[in-house]
């Protein structure tokens, strides 16, 4: 199943979204990619520190009326599937 690109977060927040940690501190994350895979919608986000390490945070995007909520992916299998889809999108971009 191929991921389908999306723009829900970028349309609402622009290129960056601010997330609040459990400790209450806010940090800006660049929206690297958004995509739908099956019935789920995912976002790959990257903080400045993560950029330096070449890492991304994979989160599930939930629509709640007009609100968009990001939640952690608890299942290792689901996270791996979402990360592979993100890699596919990045690989496709490099072939353009």
Brief summary of the model shown:
The protein has 96 residues and is of the alpha+beta class. Helix content is 32%, strand content 42%. It has one domain (4-94).
Describe this structure in words.
A hairpin with a 5-residue loop joins strand 2 and strand 3 (26-37). It is globular and about 35 Å long. The relative contact order is 0.19. The protein has one domain (4-94). Strands 1, 2, 3, 4, 5 and 6 form a 6-stranded antiparallel β-sheet that branches. It has 3 helices and 6 strands, in the order βαβββαββα. It has helices at 8-13, 48-53, 76-94; strands at 4-5, 16-20, 26-37, 40-46, 57-64, 67-72. The chain starts with a strand and ends with a helix.
Q: Approximately how much beta-strand content do the residues carry?
A: 35-45%
Radius of gyration: 13 Å
Helix content: 25-40%
Number of helices: 3
Tell me the number of strands: 6
User: Could you give the order of the helices and strands?
Assistant: EHEEEHEEH
Straight-line N-to-C gap:
20 Å
Which key terms come to mind for this protein?
alpha+beta; globular; six-stranded antiparallel sheet; 96 residues; single chain
Question: What's the arrangement of secondary structure elements?
Answer:
Elements: E1 4-5, H1 8-13, E2 16-20, E3 26-37, E4 40-46, H2 48-53, E5 57-64, E6 67-72, H3 76-94
Antiparallel strand pairs: 1-3, 2-3, 3-4, 4-5, 5-6
């Amino acid at each position: 199943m191929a991921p389908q690109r999306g723009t829900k977060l970028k349309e609402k927040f622009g290129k960056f979204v601010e997330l609040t940690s459990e400790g209450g501190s806010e940090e800006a994350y660049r929206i690297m990619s958004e995509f739908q895979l099956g019935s789920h919608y995912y976002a790959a986000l990257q903080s400045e520190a993560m950029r330096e390490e070449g890492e991304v945070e994979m989160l599930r995007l939930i629509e709640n009326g007009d609100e968009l909520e990001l939640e952690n992916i608890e299942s290792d299998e689901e996270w791996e599937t979402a990360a592979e889809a993100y890699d596919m999108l990045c690989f496709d971009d490099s072939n353009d």
